[in-house]
Request: fold
Amino acid sequence: MSSITQYLNLYRDNRADVHSHSVELLNESRDDAYAFLQDKSLPDKGEEGFEKTSIEDMFSPDFGVNICRLNIPVDVAASFKCDVPNISTLLGVVVNDMFVPTATLLKNCPEGVTMMSLSRAAKEQPEFVGRYLGKISPKDNVNVALNTLLLQDGVFIHIGRGVKLEKPLQIVNIFNSPAPMMSVRRVVIVAEEGSSANILFCDHTQTRDIDYLSSEVFEVSLAENSHISICGIEESSNHTRRYQQVFVRQESGSNLYINSSSLQNGTTRNDFTIDIVGEHCETYLTGIAIADGEGTVDNNSNVNHLAPHSHSNQLFKYLVDGKAQGAFEGGIYVAQTAPFTEGYQSNSNLLASTTARMHTKPQLLIYNDEVKCSHGASTGQLDENALFYMQQRGIPKDVARTLLMQAFMSEVIDTIPVEGVKDRMRHLVEKRLSGDFMLCGECGSCK
Amino acid sequence: MSENKINNAPAADEDILRQATGDEYKYGFVTDIETDIIPQGLSEDVVRLISEKKGEPEWLLDFRLKAYRHWQTLEVPNWAHLKIPPIDFNSISYYAAPKKNAPHSIDEVDPELLKTFDKLGIPLEEQKVLSGMAVDAVMDSVSVKTTHKEKLAELGIIFCSISEAVKDYPDLVKKYLGKVVSYRDNFYAALNSAVFSDGSFVYIPKGVRCPMELSTYFRINASGTGQFERTLIVADDDAYVSYLEGCTAPMRDENQLHAAIVEIIVEDRAEVKYSTVQNWYAGDKDGKGGVYNFVTKRGLCRGDYSKLSWTQVETGSAITWKYPSCVLQGEGSTGEFYSVAVTKNKQQADTGTKMIHIGRNTRSTIVSKGISAGESENSYRGLVKVAPTADGSRNHTQCDSLLLSNRCGAHTFPYVDIMNETAIVEHEATTSKISEEQLFYCNQRGIPTEEAVGLIVNGYAKEVMNKLPMEFAVEAQRLLQVTLEGSVG
Reply:
């Protein structure tokens, strides 16, 4: 029996509850998703594109879903320790899937910018939200359909036309539950023409011994000449599973930067599908993964060039230790309609133990001859000569190793467009590598 | 002046490419000789019939039947980046042999057949023995003639058709057959194991360096047949052999199936060099007809410090599905893969290699050059796997694609699986068309665009061409010319 059946049964048995605890707009597409999922199954290990991560296994335990929207008590204040030093942000907290705005956000949110609960936005302005919700993610994707089936809340971010937001928007995701739980979230980001914004996400699990599953679907639309950067840091627990799917549509002249960093996690699978439909777009997709214990980090990208004169660059670096497993599957697709495309992709990995595993598959699909595309991948270990050189000069081996690993990661960190975030990432990676890294809300080092 | 030239250059390019992609297949003749074909279709009875016709021992029939039964449980693989029309496995005849077979000297060979090989230009006849090759020619399903056998026998080298080997050296064949590519390996390997008709068998004894290139020429002649040959090469300790393989087929409207298996076993400090020039009929300009080339090739570097090198020039076949692989089991063993794959018109190719590192300090090199023209699809698919036991192993992969038209596809699917922290694995790939700057540079120096394109393509493929043995390099060069005529100087 596919694990999808248990979710279908859950919906069938609790349809009335799901509908009565959600807003109309979210309820509209549930039955279609239910019908679509009938004869489907979630991707399993070994299927093309899912070589190392079984979504089936990820979803198969019996997770509770908070259908009736019970309030789970949470120490929201702890999340404030995640403040990025030196920069002030407009902060919102998402507890499991419920959005809690902070006082500063309510007070200081500039005109033309909306950052609020998806369900509230859908309730207050159904027509407006309906224009974007479910429009970018494909309807025939099994996990998206499952997300649609059980979706009750999430985040809605709208940057109005020409608005250049200086303060970054920050979303702190807190996973907290007394029992094994699955949270289903949707994040809709809309950047209107000529707008720009930096958006930060971080994931934290507060109940660290409880199994937790997060199903997230991002729908990001960039109108002409908009600039959006999205930085996500994952610092959850090794009992946390996350399946995040990011769908982006880029119009002419838009500029997108995405960084996805997994510093602490259980099983993580991230899918990035970026459709470049307008000309002269720029796309940067970057990521860091530091995995140890029995963790898994699996990043999968599809950058689809559908229009001419665009530029994309992907850079992912992994450090895999312990019995952890890293996987990267990158894709650049250049359609016949997209001449003068430049697409680059690079993936470098360090293996730090005999039991660590790394799988990488950087792919190119090219249907046009007016292109420049390349990809590179390497897997290896720290340079012995460099280590020796540093030890010769009195740097202890441990410190030398950490320094080299930091240097290895800094190529990715240096691409982060927000200075304060860059410093913070450097700090977090350093903490992580030197081994005294814990949930940042608890370690106190971020104060 | 120079401005005019720049403007003209793309137009000239297009002309050249049109000429190139319009070139017809030159090996598309049919030889009119009597052929013994069994009725179409596949069943246990057919498998038994093939075995009976070949007078095979019981164990081989068992092997075939096991394979056939396993094949029935399998489904056609569809993971490759290929559009394969459904194949009706019951409309294929699984055995076709020239009637006058098993000649004992060159005089007994059917003169028509000799003419065929003459047309192919392969050195089968005695007069061509001077070129120093030992040739086993496989026409449709049966090995027709093996030259130089006596001379090789003096050194203890066995080079004969696999059916002869089954009769004369049953122990050797039994020991090695199916040990590298099991009948359970994949759909087409199972099919081949059930119905394989002939192929070559090579055994190089300990410490012997084979003094000449061994060569097999494959040709599908009869219509409505499939060719399922099997090659088995064993290089014992400290042995060396260079083996060449060439393929052609007549032009036919319907598609012909070619599902072969090549197994190679390399013992301690031995070296095997396997070169292929594949030029099966690729179908016409509209993609009608052509050979489906679904081949499983794998070598096992079982011995310490053994070496296996694959070199392939792929210009033919309507659809190619082929991944010559190396299993690097012995300590310090080396695997190499050099490939040039050219596709034009509506050809499709999904080809590459697998390097499986198991032993310590194993090394592998992959160099793949794809050239796609017309409306063809050319994919590189390769796996580099480093097992936990493979300390200090090393791989470097370079795969480049060159696009010659704006309607073709060039794709890269590299799989890299690392389970050992001391391994170093690198992969690089680029995709581009011939740069205007390079063409302009040549033009400036008085080299016409046509020659310049030739120069650049030649230079691009040189790294691989250099790895081919002399005699083959000439043929391969000629093939590249035929395939991309006008663009190669």
User: Anything to note?
Assistant: Chain B has three domains: 1-27+434-458+480-489, 31-295, 323-433. Residues 52 and 284 of chain B are 38 Å apart (CA to CA). The two ends of chain B are 24 Å apart (CA to CA). Chain B has a mean pLDDT of 77.
